[in-house]
Amino acid sequence: MQAGLRNYLVVTGGYWAFTVTDGAIRMLVVLYFHLLGYTPFEVAMLFLFYEFFGIVTNLVGGWLGARIGLNLTMHIGMGMQVVALALLTVPDAWLSVAYVMAAQALSGIAKDLNKMSAKASVKTLAGSGGESRLFKWVAVLTGSKNALKGAGFFVGAALLEWIGFRGALAVLAGMLLVVLVVTAMLLPSGVGRMKAKPKFTQVFSNRAEINWLAAARFFLFGSRDVWFVVGLPVFLYSVLGWGFTRVGAFLALWVIGYGVVQAAAPRLVRRSHHGQGPGGGTARLWACVLALFPAGIALALQQGWDPATVLVVGLVLFGIVFAINSAVHSYLILAYSDFDKVSMNVGFYYMANAGGRLAGTVLSGWVYQTQGLEGCLWWSAGFVLVAALLSLKLPPVATGGKEPAIV
After folding, report:
1. In this predicted structure, what is the pLDDT of residue 49?
2. What's the rounded mean pLDDT across residues 32-58?
């Protein structure tokens, strides 16, 4: 247990460092390229490949982690992020849309390699300590990640103001390079590697509960991004008249609060007793509760209630319940997975996660333009209801799983 806890803390620390750079680079790109005169559509396009390659990376990354080990894929992701940061330090004349999209694609690949590796590692590092420990460990890892991504927004903006765009990129790249070296020295080799080299076709799960969970995850994250990515910030800026700083600070604080709730999910759910974590019924319950909030916000806006109050209060409540939903899903994918297939199952699951984010991002712009923020919220409620229906197929978590079949 002591070695497992130590390695878990090393993985978590590496994941934290990477997450700060991930949030910071997004804020740096948005703010700096806005200053360069890029249109909002061009700025949005810079992140298209970042999201798209998340789908591909999660699919391939889980298979790769099973073959070469999760610690190695995690460090490959860190190294790619260092390169992505360095690529943006070129002169402004080189920073075309295509060039920055390519750099962001590399950053997206790096992010999903790192995330898949860190989260899949928890299954192995938690060992045979029971499902309650697994739920707590994955909730802390996931929740702290989201809190630090919000903190990364502040770090990126502050560094941009203090030392400029290229100085900020250099600081972030140097910090992450040091973390890469330290974690590579501290972690054992071969974490998560299967004894038998898996075929690529094994990436697609043949277990029904994992396929249903992945489908539910697609719609869960689509329900968030269909109004959060484009519709909400544009509405806050153009309709409510909030400034860029106020909009950015509010969204960053929301992400931080979301992460705090995610980390506290085991206590909020109160289902972790006698070594047991939540099951499929918990996912169904919280999805049904979540659907009430975007629908309620849409109704309140349509009734003419004060939009600032409705959105602030509604977003806080939505974030709390969404964070619990997400934490339960993140636990279930590990609980449903055998030790020797965890990396491939997590990769497949996060492929669906990335697909939902991509769909939500694209829909957010189109729906907001054609149906307004209320339309985005109704789409969000519909997506959550689909996730709840898909969760009807999720079984309870079986106990007494097999020991890790890793080397």
Report:
1. 84
2. 77
Paired residues of 194 in beta bridges: 406
Reduce the secondary structure of 65-126 to three states and give it as a string: HHHHCHHHHHHHHHHHHHHHHHHCCCCHHHCCHHHHHHHHHHHHHHHHHHHHHHHHHHHHHH
Q: How far apart are CA 165 and CA 156, in angstroms?
A: 9
- Mean pLDDT over 278-299 rounds to 93
Instruction: Report the alpha-carbon distance of residue 261 to residue 254 in Å, rounded.
Output: 11
Q: What is the chain's mean pLDDT, rounded?
A: 80
Whole-model pTM: value is: 0.71
Sequence spans of domains, the chain: 2-190+204-393
Q: Which two tokens stand for residue 198?
A: 């898996």
pLDDT digits (tens, 9 = 90+) for 213-222: 999 999 999 9
Burial class (CB in 10 A: 0-12, 13-18, 19+), 366: middle
Which DSSP state fits 200?
A: G
Amino acid identity, position 156: G
Which of 91-100, 180-189, 261-270, 283-292 has the least mean pLDDT? 261-270
Cα of first residue to Cα of last residue in the chain, in angstroms, is: 18
pLDDT exceeds cutoff 90 at 290: yes
Most confident of the following: 70-74, 97-101, 291-295: 291-295
Q: Answer yes or no: are the C-beta atoms of 176 and 21 closer than 8 Å.
A: yes
Q: Could you give the CA distance from residue 60 to residue 85 in angstroms, rounded to a whole number?
A: 23
CATH of domain 2-190+204-393: 1.20.1250.20
As a whole number of angstroms, the distance between CA 101 and CA 108 comes to: 10
